[in-house]
Amino acid sequence: MAQSTPWTMTAIEIGTPGGPEVLTPAQRPAPHPTADEILIEVHAAGVNRPDLMQRQGNYPPPPGASDIPGLEVAGTVAALGEGVTGWAVGDAVCALLAGGGYAQYVAVPAVQCLPVPEGLTMVEAAALPETLFTCWTNLVDGGHLKAGETVLIHGGASGIGTTGIQLAKALGATVFVTAGSPAKCEACRRLGADLAIDYKSEDFVAAVKQATAKQVGGKRGVDVVLDMVGGDYVRRDIEILAQGGRHVSIAVQGGPEATIPIFKVMQKRLILTGSTLRARSPAEKGRIAEALHETAWPMIAAGKLKPLIHATFPLERAADAHRALEDGDHIGKIVLMVKEAPEI
Ligand SMILES: NC(=O)c1ccc[n+]([C@@H]2O[C@H](COP(=O)([O-])OP(=O)(O)OC[C@H]3O[C@@H](n4cnc5c(N)ncnc54)[C@H](OP(=O)(O)O)[C@@H]3O)[C@@H](O)[C@H]2O)c1
Question: 184: Cβ–Cβ under 8 A, 6 or more apart, which residues?
Fold first, then answer.
């Protein structure tokens, strides 16, 4: 290890599973990096919906992962495992984690680390990894989204959605979204969405059919759906997928089971797929990191992709950050300030 590290740190613990109040600051031993890991001094940590599920006891950390919540951070390199090359103590770094982000220090496989993009603050960089890794692997690897195609992203104003809109636009796609209020729809349009459907006042199936009625070649519908709702959305998504369309599930907020019109899947030669990110191996996450560095980092440098920060909270107020995410009024990301002075 290239540098000595502190013995203890402040971290947010989940007491017994429950409401936001079970998140409490505690003193913990600081982690030490193994041979392939980087120890990060955390400046900011992103808050994600899966963190709420973990707090409620519905999303346990995968084997070997920290029990401290937090799936993404930005900070500086504090120490290097002996096998790690290409990084130096003091480098600005952001990382995808399997857990442990709500803390002053976290150790993470080096392959899951990326440089903080030039021009982004630590808060913005902390809001990148979980949503970008998820959007990339589901829109590109799973959904095979290509320039010139059309994608429908449900939950357009979410952390995932606000990143997904910008990524899909930068890839050259036409982007439709659903969101739950006129203000959220307007925010999605400002980020580049070509069509934003307020699903609470409009049937998204009818809206997509109408918007794609004059598509070239009589092809009607969207090529890819990125779905974080599940339940009866799957049947409705299938109705508006075009010939050869891909349906990518990333969450089941509307229910874990669906009844599917199989004959339509056959007629339209649809592909139904999906993924989870957290339990995948460091090697798989490393492959996504490489693809992001090659493709998404230049988009960030070109100003085409930037996390939308809704609010920040000091680490000690992680419970309030969870309350804010649970309220559901946010547009974009909520971030914990671990070292930085509050910016927003
Ligand atoms: N599979 C993976 O690898 C992976 C990775 C990360 C996150 N996720 C999942 O992706 C989702 C978004 O994560 P996040 O951190 O970005 O959360 P978030 O910002 O809290 O977003 C959740 C969004 O879900 C929408 N929503 C909830 N119920 C809905 C319903 N019945 N119909 C339509 N929209 C609904 C809400 O939209 P409105 O407020 O507009 O209604 C909200 O914007 C979460 O479910 C999370 O678990 C999956």
Answer: 156, 157, 196, 198, 331
Q: What is the distance in A from the centroid of ligand 1 to the CA of 107? A: 27
pLDDT, tens digit (0-9, with 9 covering 90-100), for 46-105: 999 999 999 999 999 999 999 999 999 999 999 999 999 999 999 999 999 999 999 999
The letter for the amino acid at 155 is G
Contact between 108 and 95 under an 8 Å Cβ cutoff? The reply is yes
Cβ of 48 closer than 6 Å to ligand 1, yes or no, is: yes
Dihedral over alpha carbons 75, 79, 80, 85 (to 10 degrees): 60
pTM, entire model: 0.96
State mean pLDDT over 306-324.
98
**How much is the pLDDT for 2?**
45
Give nearest CA residue, ligand 1 atom 44: 49
Please name every residue paired with 336 in a beta bridge, in sequence order, or none if there are none: 45, 313
